[in-house]
């Protein structure tokens, strides 16, 4: 099974999410490949069975700058063979814009036909121990959808 995690980070919080995902996939018997948005073309994911997208939210609820090309390319993608999950860091301080990039990417991958097999997740800043059951459920649901 090919599992790919795509992320970017400015201050490191998203990296804590990626590490937690990677650890959880490993615990459940799978290895994930980790990529940054800017270094990833959609065609790199042609063989991917499960794609996890990890966007932080910026500037009034926008997706990360580094992910914009990837986001736009999804407009013309066919991801109907893929199971997908979206989980991203935000800050509740931003009120109605909290974690908006997670919602935007979730809508975008659904439009591309992906099976969004687990509910999109917003993480307050960095992962802490309280988030680990959420990560467990997220990864379990992705794997169950593909197995
Ligand atoms: C200028 C600026 C604007 C931000 N705007 C939002 C926002 O609209 N919504 C939100 O949930 N978080 C917002 N954040 C918080 C970031 O999403 C949060 O700090 C996140 O953990 C950054 O991820 P990173 O550590 O992986 O770079 C903003 C942060 C900065 C510095």
TrEMBL record:
Protein keywords: Electron transport, Flavoprotein, FMN, Transport
GO molecular function: FMN binding; oxidoreductase activity, acting on NAD(P)H
Gene3D superfamilies attached to this UniProt entry: 3.40.50.360
InterPro entries: Flavodoxin, Flavodoxin/NO_synth, Flavoprotein-like_sf
Residues covered by the Flavodoxin-like domain: 3-143
Superkingdom of the source species: Bacteria
KW Ubl conjugation (keyword) present: no
UniProt-listed PROSITE patterns: FLAVODOXIN_LIKE
Cofactor(s) the record lists: FMN
Pfam families xrefs: Flavodoxin_1 (PF00258)
PANTHER family listed in its UniProt record: FLAVODOXIN 1, FLAVODOXIN 2
Protein task: Low-potential electron donor to a number of redox enzymes.
Protein family according to the UniProt entry: Belongs to the flavodoxin family.
Name under which the protein is recorded: Flavodoxin
Species whose genome carries this gene: Oenococcus kitaharae DSM 17330
